[in-house]
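Session log. Operator J.P. requested a structure for one protein chain; no other inputs attached. Running the standard single-chain path with token output.
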Amino acid sequence: MKYGIIDIGSNTMRLVIYERSKSGRLRERENVKIAARLRNYLTEDGFFTEEGLRVLLDGLLTFQDVTRFHRLHDVKCVATATIRQARNRDEIVRFIAEKTDFRIRILSEYEEAYYGFLAVIQSTSFHEGITVDIGGGSTEVTYFHNRELVDYHSFPFGALSLKRQFVAGNVPTDEELQTLRAYVDKQFQSLPWLKQRRLPIIAIGGSARNVVQVHQMLQNYPIAGIHQYEMNRDDIVQVKKYLRSLTFEQLQKVEALSKDRADLIIPAVEVFQTLYETVDATTFILSRKGLRDGIFYEQFGPIVFPSVLDESFFELAQDYEVNTKHVQHVLKLVIQLFDQMRALSLFPLTGEDLVLLKRAAHVFYLGQYVDEEASSQHTFYLLANRTIDGLSHRDRVQLALVASFKNKTLFKQYVQPFHAWFTRTEQKKLRFLGALLKFAYSLNDTKRNIVDRVQLELQDETVVVHLFCSQSFKAEEYQAEKHKKHVEKMLKRPIQLQFHLEG
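Structure written below.
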């Protein structure tokens, strides 16, 4: 099934077509954008002009060609601040209904804020925070606690309206930016529930996306993906300084920046920095999921996933045809190995390490779906570069390193771009967890679940691993003997395997 939604914003109009994957997840198939700048056609006395109506109609007719090609029916069509604020909005809705296949639904300030909030909590694991969405003509902020919306507000300014009000040319002067900042700061200070909250800010929308892409470019960021990318105040200031050092012509050529946002990005960055300082935020995080996703989350439910991360792992298992029965048995074995190694103080391990090991067990060698021979390489690439809702980028790379473990050489190759992310001690632990997981998988090589339990004991310097089996174990014994060397190297102790046939 395919689903379509049209988002008529103040700066851009966008048609997105989604398709359901094996897991039930909505995947983006088409994304058609038009930089219509409808805000420019709203007069000072609040009327949307005839020229603006022609621009709106032309854009929707372009989208209509695409939706008819895909044979889409009942396409959702929503409009935000500019159409909402137009005094002749009823006439706009009637005109579009007569001329196109679409029926415009004008979102209220609450609905616009709510759908952004809903997208954030459905795609991240935050239980409390501030969301912000800078559009072209309005800025929505919310405060949520225990994943429930507590407060919301829609400010009557966006990146485009701020530029029109405060900036005479294409880029702001120092004085213009100072005036703009004072205005935005006064607006934010009017909300007591924003001030000094010391919470994460989760940003959605095109302006936030461009800020993140510019920062990733400046950092030579080693992996793909912007969802849940984290920045601090200094990072935002770095982006602002870089952008302000460029001429407008240079801004238009920045690869990480949409050309149609070149004159809007600096006002937007100023809003983000001001909000960060107002909230005294702990971090600034991008959610790639926004208003459009929130509308579909409401339609397809559940309204709030019990665990965003659990949902993500379910999607991975479905999309890459993971053998869940095999995974569950290996998980049982690797937990036994982990607990006993920890009890015998064979390696410094923590509860957080066990959480990571359990996650990695669910996606170990997931890359087999692509190619059996290069499954380790595909596993690392897929997990490190795929958006996994609920996991930070650092956690995602950790997961990829453990779940793709094959040998020391490949591990060092994979971790090389991330040396600054992990200490040598952390890298050693990730390698150990990967080696342990690979060994556990060898104990179920034939996927018959024949190893019922594992018992470890120390005999002098040797780790004796007793494996109690319900059936013949020759294949498992061969693989376990082959792969134990990776664990031996990490423990700096020999491992002796003793298989026992029970019953």
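Operator note: Residues 425 and 493 are 19 Å apart (CA to CA).
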